[in-house]
Amino acid sequence: KAGVTQTPRYLIKTRGQQVTLSCSPISGHRSVSWYQQTPGQGLQFLFEYFSETQRNKGNFPGRFSGRQFSNSRSEMNVSTLELGDSALYLCASSFWGWGYTFGSGTRLTVV
Amino acid sequence: ELKVEQNPLFLSMQEGKNYTIYCNYSTTSDRLYWYRQDPGKSLESLFVLLSNGAVKQEGRLMASLDTKARLSTLHITAAVHDLSATYFCAVQPSGSRLTFGEGTQLTVNP
User: Which 8-state DSSP code applies to residue B70?
Assistant: First the structure.
């Protein structure tokens, strides 16, 4: 079966711009989580959606937002990009909210 | 706040040797995960440990969980170069999200 698909794989944006990342979970999975990975901070939780509802939220500023659609696909948006937002953004899907499968990630570079 | 600590953070070992990576966590958690990450790649699930005393093995890797001590170990037997990667443990308290350790960067030298 198809895995977790994240698009785009790579992105270069300028400070102040906004960006939208997409995640399509494994078919049948209803939970989607987002993580930011940086060399300095490691893997940090952004938010989790389950059946279109945000279930958990990490300690990130309001510039980071997300949503989940009725087909379980999820998008993450970052507005007013800062240099420090450069990171690998990973999406993970699961059926019940445990046993996560990660996507290949989107590498965002802010210049 | 849940804290997850791994040690060592860096591990250089010779092929054929054994070693253990430790993962300590600060509060009760229902599930513990081990993931592998190759440079520039995503996280590959290795093990999910669900109960005290759980032990799982796959090839040269064996993971165990002691919930009383809040400790999980990832034991590497007779290391080979292909095991070179960064290994993360993550814990998940009930109804909550994954909290990751800092990762252990493993290098296996010929």
Answer: T
Min CA distance, A43 vs chain B (Å)? 6
CB contact at 8 A, B40 and B53: no
Q: Which pLDDT tens digits describe chain A residue by residue (111 residues)?
A: 579 999 999 999 999 999 999 999 999 999 999 999 999 899 999 999 999 999 989 999 999 999 999 999 999 999 999 999 999 999 999 987 778 999 999 999 999
Structure tokens at A53: 């509802």
Contact across the interface for B100 and A42, Cβ inside 8 Å: yes
Q: What is the DSSP letter of B2?
A: -
Q: Are residues B35 and B45 in contact, defined by beta-carbon separation less than 8 angstroms?
A: yes
CB contacts under 8 A, A 66-85 vs B, are none
**Gap from A35 CA to chain B (nearest CA, Å):** 10
